[in-house]
Amino acid sequence: MTVPFLDLRRQNEELRGELDAVYARVLDSGVFLGGAEVSAFEEELAAWCGAREAVAVASGTDALELALRAVGVGVEPGDEVITAASTCVPTVAAIVAAGGTPVLADIDPVTYTLDLDSVLEACRPRTRALVPVHLYGQCADLGPLLELARDRGLAVVDDAAQAHGAELGGRRVGGLCDATAFSFYPTKNLGALGDGGAVVTDDAGVAARVRRLRSYGEDERYRSIEFGRNSRLDALQAAVLRLKLPRLEGWNERRRELAAGYGRLLAESELTLPTEAPGTRHAWHLYVVRAREREPLRAALATRGIETLVHYPRALHEHPAYGALARPGLERSEELAREALSLPLYPQLEDDEVDRVCAALDEVLV
Ligand SMILES: *Cc1c(COP(=O)(O)O)cnc(C)c1O
What we know:
Elements: H1 8-29, H2 35-49, E1 53-57, H3 60-70, E2 80-84, H4 89-97, E3 101-105, H5 116-122, E4 127-131, H6 142-152, E5 155-159, E6 167-168, E7 171-172, E8 179-183, E9 197-201, H7 204-213, E10 218-220, E11 223-224, H8 235-265, E12 280-281, E13 287-290, H9 294-303, H10 331-339, E14 340-343, H11 351-365
Parallel strand pairs: 2-3, 2-4, 4-5, 5-8
Antiparallel strand pairs: 1-9, 6-7, 6-12, 8-9, 10-11, 13-14
Helix pairs in contact: 1-8, 2-8, 3-4, 3-7, 8-11
Bound molecules: pyridoxal-5'-phosphate.
Pyridoxal-5'-phosphate binds next to helix 3 and helix 4.
């Protein structure tokens, strides 16, 4: 019997009857983009985060791009935006799309999020913004980054695509920085049945600007006052997300329980296990261990029916498209790319599946 890395059908089975009712409601409404479902979702998401505003867009990448433009990135050619070398491509693709020039900084060796010293090294006169990534669901150490940003007049837009429900000092991610970008890609902690994203902010000006940018730069219908494009959330996706949002806390609790299970069962192994930084609450989007001999380990697990993935096999500057971003001082990100191994972790995973993953690891690691 295999342990699948992720089986989204289990979540949808749990909600099947209610999902059917949601489709019917949207179909009967005759409204398929924007409208009441989308505005209700925006209000509910903002409230859930404890922030003033949420603006729904078409994807997490769009959320980051439009948030960056809304805080002023791309106004001057050559505006630099610092982010972590340990992230997936969309973080950096969004910076480029916003008209920014990405500059990579290294990660903290324990939290895998932006390292302050590395950010300080990367800061230059043209630096306009910082994009901390709450990688794997671990909240980045925002305090010192926000302080640095205040001192130097930089904007901070956090990439929370993996961190719905992560907390810092008892406050949920979303509204802790100038703007926060969420993704509702189906595999995320809060996932749609397709693409979706949102910008969450306490700044009414930023929210208004994102609303404009997602709709051709229009301040009123058919009057465009700046370059903007279309980036819309489907009413159907909004309605599905509204159904799921009230369950997110429970699902995150279950992720936490499963992560604790891995922690107990693997405590004596040679793997480096993920930890929760003090003063934070991890959203456990992924359970990523580090293994020195990752590839043989993955293969041995696969023959035992245990599916694993790698997030991510390359540091950002190791992608052919982004080689120009390479610079000395990104070694920790490079090492993480060699050693990271994601074990199955999602709310509908069974306890005995965690047991089986750990038993297989036990066998293989000797
Ligand atoms: C998923 C993800 C994104 C992109 O979100 P999309 O909705 O797929 O565009 C950006 N950053 C991180 C860290 C992600 O995990």
